[in-house]
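Kindly inspect this one:
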Amino acid sequence: MARNTLSRSLHDVGLAAWFGGTLANAVALNEAAAEAGSAKAAGAVANAGWNRWTPVNAAAIGAHLIGSVGQLQANKRRVAQQQGAAGMSVVKTALTAAALGVTAYSRALGQIVAAGGATPSKRGTKPSKRARAEVAVAQERLDTLQWVIPALTGALVVVSSYAGEQQRPSEVLRGVSQKNPTV
């Protein structure tokens, strides 16, 4: 069995950055923006922070996806032969697709907020009463979605841990023999 250090590293580091960065921004950046001194400054600070995070997040997601494809390629035989491995792969793929979709939608909403300039804001995702209607709607949606992305990517971390456990030799032997009783 060949080593897959590069693809595993891309998978894991990319996912760690995607999860950790979005969680940190939800916990810290959006809340800290409220301390910028004024509602207008709060909006500007949140926009600046998220705009700086976006290229890093895109790179992290790209690394994760490249690593995921590499891992699937390296384990395709085991996934086909080991009971439970294909199901786990389907779950990981579905979670990844959901996280990508929510991330893309959040970015589109973030662009609406950023296009509004230094929109008055209570904090990063809480519009002030002076915010334009379309910006306020985008911020309100982002207020929920900022937690959905770390929840989905956190679930991916858990499923990835489970996938790693499936690769133990004893698990592979048991899974292959259960799927193919004649082995």
Notes: Strands lie at 121-123, 126-127.
